[in-house]
Amino acid sequence: MKRPSWRIPIFSRKAPLSPLPPGASPGTLTAPADASPPRITVLAYDAEQMVEEELDDPAAISDYLESWPVSWINIDGLGDTTVVEQVGSVFGIHPLALEDVLNIRHRPKIEEYDEHIFVVTRMAGFDDQFEPEQVSLFLSSNYVLTFQERQGDCLEPVRNRLRTKKGKIRQRGPDYLAYAVLDAVVDGYFPVLEQMSERLEELEDEILRNPKTETVARIQGARHEMLTLRRSVAPQREIFNSMVRDGHDVIGEEVGVYLRDTQDHVIRIVEIAESYREVASGLMDLYMSSVSNRMNDIMKVLTIMATMFIPLTFVAGIYGMNFDPDVSPFNMPELRWFWGYPFALGLMVVMTVGLLVYFRRKGWIGS
Amino acid sequence: MKRPSWRIPIFSRKAPLSPLPPGASPGTLTAPADASPPRITVLAYDAEQMVEEELDDPAAISDYLESWPVSWINIDGLGDTTVVEQVGSVFGIHPLALEDVLNIRHRPKIEEYDEHIFVVTRMAGFDDQFEPEQVSLFLSSNYVLTFQERQGDCLEPVRNRLRTKKGKIRQRGPDYLAYAVLDAVVDGYFPVLEQMSERLEELEDEILRNPKTETVARIQGARHEMLTLRRSVAPQREIFNSMVRDGHDVIGEEVGVYLRDTQDHVIRIVEIAESYREVASGLMDLYMSSVSNRMNDIMKVLTIMATMFIPLTFVAGIYGMNFDPDVSPFNMPELRWFWGYPFALGLMVVMTVGLLVYFRRKGWIGS
Amino acid sequence: MKRPSWRIPIFSRKAPLSPLPPGASPGTLTAPADASPPRITVLAYDAEQMVEEELDDPAAISDYLESWPVSWINIDGLGDTTVVEQVGSVFGIHPLALEDVLNIRHRPKIEEYDEHIFVVTRMAGFDDQFEPEQVSLFLSSNYVLTFQERQGDCLEPVRNRLRTKKGKIRQRGPDYLAYAVLDAVVDGYFPVLEQMSERLEELEDEILRNPKTETVARIQGARHEMLTLRRSVAPQREIFNSMVRDGHDVIGEEVGVYLRDTQDHVIRIVEIAESYREVASGLMDLYMSSVSNRMNDIMKVLTIMATMFIPLTFVAGIYGMNFDPDVSPFNMPELRWFWGYPFALGLMVVMTVGLLVYFRRKGWIGS
Amino acid sequence: MKRPSWRIPIFSRKAPLSPLPPGASPGTLTAPADASPPRITVLAYDAEQMVEEELDDPAAISDYLESWPVSWINIDGLGDTTVVEQVGSVFGIHPLALEDVLNIRHRPKIEEYDEHIFVVTRMAGFDDQFEPEQVSLFLSSNYVLTFQERQGDCLEPVRNRLRTKKGKIRQRGPDYLAYAVLDAVVDGYFPVLEQMSERLEELEDEILRNPKTETVARIQGARHEMLTLRRSVAPQREIFNSMVRDGHDVIGEEVGVYLRDTQDHVIRIVEIAESYREVASGLMDLYMSSVSNRMNDIMKVLTIMATMFIPLTFVAGIYGMNFDPDVSPFNMPELRWFWGYPFALGLMVVMTVGLLVYFRRKGWIGS
Amino acid sequence: MKRPSWRIPIFSRKAPLSPLPPGASPGTLTAPADASPPRITVLAYDAEQMVEEELDDPAAISDYLESWPVSWINIDGLGDTTVVEQVGSVFGIHPLALEDVLNIRHRPKIEEYDEHIFVVTRMAGFDDQFEPEQVSLFLSSNYVLTFQERQGDCLEPVRNRLRTKKGKIRQRGPDYLAYAVLDAVVDGYFPVLEQMSERLEELEDEILRNPKTETVARIQGARHEMLTLRRSVAPQREIFNSMVRDGHDVIGEEVGVYLRDTQDHVIRIVEIAESYREVASGLMDLYMSSVSNRMNDIMKVLTIMATMFIPLTFVAGIYGMNFDPDVSPFNMPELRWFWGYPFALGLMVVMTVGLLVYFRRKGWIGS
Questions:
Q1: Do the interacting molecules here have an ipTM over 0.90?
Q2: Angstrom distance (rounded) from CA B27 to CA D297
């Protein structure tokens, strides 16, 4: 049975925190749990032409690399270590980098190897809960190689721009393609933030209408999610920083201005996430206040009722005493007064009116 | 129906968080939602003369640029991307910069291009709620170009100084004009802070007089607003920093001392905003204390009333028992005492006085 | 009517947040609201002789500058912009610096001009509430010029040291005099901190004896004051830093060791202020605990009284029922028992004792 | 008797905070309390062969150092200072380093000596509570020397890789061995974090089902443990930093990429620990809310019961009064009405229904 | 009367915050309040011999300085400014340094003078409350001069090492002696931390057994003390930093490794103090939870009692009504039923059992 989304996000659910047992040999490849089998697609193009194909055999990739100026090889699904290893050997990838590709909880980072730049980043996913998906990207002078955890991504618009020759993307090299991919990954966080803001609004409504313990857990969940999102995005800033500043061979100068633009987006996303976290913290205060106001309401009703009737009941109790009026003129002569009962009722009415006035002055009952 | 201003500020209300869908081609221009149509005004001058005109056709701008040493072109309203694009081509603006102009949620920043400096800043607006308006400014050796989201701004005093030759502004170049604009933008935050301080005072009154859940939401709103204001202002510091320090060609040295002065104002605004946020946090504590004191008051009334009457009612209950005095001298002989009823009433008075003394010692009832 | 000092400190009370309306020409001089008229005093000296005079005409200052190696010109009161402007022209002060002198909410700072060093600092004042007073100081090779908001300051001991030739102050130049002034300003914070510590002690007493909502406002006020004090002092550290390190022409090397000593004091004041703020935050917790303990006390009394008498009243109610003992031997035969009434009273005593034992075990009533 | 694990972790339990009394001569060796006697094992190998032996006499170590290219000497147990001193003299270890080896509460650090690099690190242990174990490692050009507090460690997989020639470990020098050991130590934190996440989940269940004061102590314990864990791991980052960057003689360049990989793991562990601490803080809020909701529930039941029955009892009290209907037609004529009793009961039913409707509107009783 | 130790630590109690009134001449010497008269002891030695004497006349010190390679002059008590001045003139101490010696609230710092290094540090004292004592140390090439506030210190073990020739201390110069003194000062904080941990444990017990408002004040006190301790220790780190790194003439290189070792201790003490502060903050949460659980307990008892007896009392009230059964068959016929009274009692038992079952389901009464 699925755990409700507002419960503590347990990191170890989807995959163990570390892919390898402590002390294992570095570079050992283990597929993540529940990973789907890899699907390899190639998208090779120059300014004039483009092919788009799905491959069964990783070895076939080399042909594209040789014949086209820019090839984008995308692997969806990390379920088969053999295929990943074959791809790794086609592109000459370091075993530790391959291990990072399969370790789907890696922190976004950039590393430079002789042949290519290796970028690990996280794509936003939101299905009831924020679920980032790791994207590993290798950029060289004639290819972009991307690994994704599962099928379905936010890169379709980039593919469409390639297919339709829209924008400058077909005239540019793999560095611009890598920018387009990373930019799409970053911008994919905006819709998640929009959904998040709706959720916060719903939470606020819930607090004001009907606060319950579950609500607190949901607020905590939202705060935690913002933290996770921030941790997914913030390190990407350094990726762009390094790409712009460190002058990698495979990144042309004219791509720098675009990377800086994406970096601005990263900063904005981090700021919005921070801001939403503040809002969520504020909701906690709102909740506490809402709950204690409800308590006050309850207590007020009890106090008004009890305070009104307790003296009345006392008066009734007085005249329910059995002192014998026969033995003494002082023993409850009221019982035999002509206006005795009306007098008692009148006394009660006076007391009630007095208390009502008092409560109204206190502001406990409506004006 | 308008959402009450103290509810969570939902960022996505006025405009989406990002102007473009993820994966869109960079430099695509989209007008913000609800944007008004652009109105172009030119204000060209030298120390002696000045013209001020409204233009229909962006192409006409070039004439002013050629004939006057300093031209200030201002565009109010971003609702027509064609006009913005035409203006962009007149001044040779990079597509990404134009995208930033239209992305009205951009973080304040400064960027240097070959021809001009590009500054994005945020002007304070306060209409029940703090609503910043984005101002984009391009500064070159012979013009200042500004884009604003909508008509109405805090720059009228600058225009008046130009019109009346007041101060040194007419003798100086576009760098001084840009300073005057940015300075007016920064100083425009002071009135907002004054309004804010009044609002905080009102909130404090409300807390002490009549705290309710809504009040908490309002306090949260005020805190959030201070955070937003701080985020609008703080990055402007780096803009002035960069203008003073980086030695841009188009900024003369003698303007530096003025820019430093404005930077001082930015720092003060940030400090005041921080300080107001502290005050707002303190109001939360005040609220919690006010609410729990009210609860204490309610409980005190209940306790005093209940504690006073419960023993009295008990005594009345005792003498309301029906034990038959006839069958035994021990069965409620008080009922037939001559002073039975006065004795019972006296007992009650003694108990009441005792409890009143006790409550007074506890400090629960006024001295 | 004066606002009670524990209410929110509204910055805009004494003076507007900014002296000039947004967009005003820089260097425009406006006297602060309620400023007293200026009083000019000169104190000129060498190792042998000293004159001390009050001037009516700013122009007369020049004579002293020419005839004495060290002149200290002090202006109390900023209420007349003409006088301030005249003084400014005697000393050749930049218009923006003069604007800062009149903007009595300026952040402490140091600025170097060609002729002199310009220091803005804040003097501690404490009259029921911490009220800093701005001191502007100009230091050149033969004079020290100080502006103060109002008469009365903590510099009298410095004047006395000059008058009595005490210490080395008469043998030294204006740099040592400036040090002496700034040192006196810094050390003036210590008595304020002492008063503050007394106030915190009083607050603690109030919390333990008689906590009320007002107390919370006072705690907030104290915290806020510590923050304000910290913000007045902390930036002074950089002033001394700059004076020691930046090698200004007008500051001799041998004054450096004294300035470092004052810097130590600044650090200590900031630390104590921080520490007091911590104490004030702790008082908030103490308050909350004190209030909730009072609530517990109230509830305990209510619970004990109600729990004791409710069963007793029930027993009395039982024997107040009117079942007819005549129709059945089961109908309340107790009413006709010989020991019926004593039995009922005994039952009540047993119940009372049982509950007392229970409450004592719970620790609700004293051992 | 063992202290329950959720109580405050008292540092001084296992060992005093400092091994030496204040003022003792530096380099004095004292065995930790309860330390087990040392057990020396040697594991010497080249690419072809390997020996693994347990030694009784520290002097015998020298033989291995001379005959094998790589020797790993491991000492489990610090209970005998003589043995530690002998080992120290075999390897020429500085007395202060030996003191650090025996001071089992040392902060992770790296120090360079002429002959070897000295690393102090902490191995994760988790037995109901997080209990780190200090590992001291000396790395030279032909040996790795490790000291551990007690037997049993997470290094068995490393030994197995050596035994089975798995991976590159047998072809490499002692620097790679040291990396393998430190990597195993770091990765040993992941299982602890997994256990921790389970514990947090259990705590959450407990809070929602049955919150008690003990739960708070357990939450505190979890937060504290995360802090301790973070402090054990975070300084290790600098160890790897220094090993990669400072170019120690005994560390080959090709090991750098592996060390960087381990450094990534350290960063991730610190992030997860931080994140768990956040979760634990959130649990505190959940707890407070859960407790106050329970209180609300209790109050609601009391209020509903009291408010329902108090008016009813009052009505019953009215008709229990003893006014004499004989003396006046106004004296409780209801008592003799034909429908008197049904009328009274009907009145009570009407009141009850009215209150039930009121409570339902308030949402206090289920729809 | 002594103020209880858990009240706010008022800094100004023992001594004013600043030794001098604002504006006083720098270098003015004032003895701290309640200071004891100075006692001068000399301990002079070389590797072979040692003398230890108490001096009456500061002038006699010079003899030792001339005849012995290392002299340690220690002054306990700062009550006589004349003696301090005489000592100052023997060693050529700067007036500001002497002022710092007498200002017993000085922040730990190091300053280099031509002749000697001047170190101000704080020795841990713990007598019910943490009370640091200022130690001022002057280190030159042939002497160590220390000033302490009062007699009794943690340096006796160092003296004993000198007396017994234990360790290397007698072979080394004054730099090693200074290290030994400073190391003993630092290590003197460990016992204080142990006592602190015991106090925290006691506080925890008190919270769980019997939380009262005083407890909160004690927790605050503990937190504050940890802060004070941290502030006493943390700046000492920079002292050792400077001694190691800045290459002072009077400190030999071989002492560096020892100083680094002490620096490690400083870091650990700061970490432990931080960690204890966290624990103290956690105790606050524990307290709040303990108090609100107690409140819940009280409310539960009240609710159970009230809810149980209110309906019963109502039933008794019903049958206490005086409707006349003679006038109508509908008027309380139960009163004349044969089983009327048993029926009423039975009804009450049924209601009681029903409520008990309800409470048990709610978990309010033990299973």
A1: no
A2: 58
How far is the C-alpha of E201 from the C-alpha of B75, rounded, in Å?
69
List the chains bordering chain D where 3 or more Cβ pairs fall under 8 Å: A, E
CATH architecture of the domain formed by A295-362: Up-down Bundle (1.20)
Q: Kindly list the partner chains of chain A, i.e. chains with 3 or more CB atom pairs below 8 Å.
A: B, D
Q: Chain B interface, mutation test: which of C14, C18, C93, C94, most B Cβ atoms within 10 Å?
A: C18
- In angstroms, rounded to a whole number, what is the distance separating the alpha carbons of residues E26 and E237? 28
Task: With CB atoms and an 8 Å threshold, state whether A257 touches B16.
Answer: no
**E201 class by beta-carbon count within 10 Å (0-12 exposed, 13-18 middle, 19+ buried):** middle
The answer to whether the CB of E84 falls within 8 A of the CB of C245 is no
State whether C212 and B299 contact (CB < 8 Å).
no
- With a cut of 90, say whether residue A294 has pLDDT above it: no
- Interface test with chain E among C185, C305, C323, C332, by most E beta carbons within 10 Å: C323
Q: Which sign does the torsion angle of CA A333, A335, A336, A342 carry? A: positive
- All residues of chain B having their beta carbon less than 8 Å from the beta carbon of residue C301 are 303, 307, 362
In words, the CATH class of domain C39-290 is alpha beta
Q: Domain D294-362: which topology?
A: Methane Monooxygenase Hydroxylase; Chain G, domain 1 (1.20.58)
Dist CA B160 CA B174 (whole Å): 16
Instruction: Give me the CATH code for the C297-362 domain, please.
Output: 1.20.58.340
Written as one string, the DSSP assignment of A309-327 is HHHHHHHHHHTT----TTT
Q: Tell me: the pLDDT tens digits for B224-275?
A: 888 888 888 989 988 998 888 887 888 888 888 889 889 989 998 998 888 8
Do residue C319 and residue B324 have CB atoms under 8 angstroms apart?
no
Cβ–Cβ gap E220/C296 under 8 Å: no
End-to-end CA distance of chain D: 52
* Per-residue pLDDT tens digits of chain D, which is 367 residues long: 344 544 555 444 455 666 677 777 877 888 887 788 899 999 999 988 899 999 988 889 999 999 999 999 999 988 888 999 999 999 999 988 998 898 888 889 999 888 899 999 999 876 667 788 899 999 999 999 999 988 878 888 899 889 987 678 888 899 999 999 999 999 999 888 888 888 888 888 888 888 887 888 888 888 888 888 888 898 998 899 888 888 788 888 888 888 988 998 999 899 888 888 888 888 888 888 888 888 888 888 888 888 888 888 888 888 888 888 787 788 778 787 888 888 888 888 898 899 889 888 887 776 4
Q: Would the CB atoms of D313 and A310 count as touching at under 8 Å?
A: no
CA nearest to A319 within chain D? D321
Chain B: nearest CA to A179, how far in angstroms? 10
Residues 6+ apart with CB under 8 A from D209: none
Of A18, A313, A335, the CB nearest to D187: A18
Q: What is the rounded average pLDDT of the residues B3-25?
A: 59
Which among E12, E227, E316 is the nearest to C317, CB-wise?
E316
Pick the CATH number of B291-362 from 3.40.50.10490, 3.30.1070.10, 3.40.50.980, 1.20.58.340: 1.20.58.340
Distances (CA, A) of A289 to A266, B199, B225, C191: 35, 20, 20, 40
Question: Does the pLDDT of residue E6 top 70, yes or no?
Answer: no
pLDDT of residue A180: 93
Q: Are E116 and E140 in contact (CB under 8 A)?
A: yes
Task: Provide the residue ranges of all domains of chain A, joining segments of one domain with +.
Answer: 39-290, 295-362
Of the residues E264, E309, E367, the best mutation for testing chain D's interface (the one with the most D CB atoms within 10 Å of its CB) is E264
Chain A nearest CA to D352, separation (Å):
13
E70-76 and E143-148: which strand pairing? parallel
User: Is B183–C309 a contact, with Cβ atoms under 8 angstroms apart?
Assistant: no
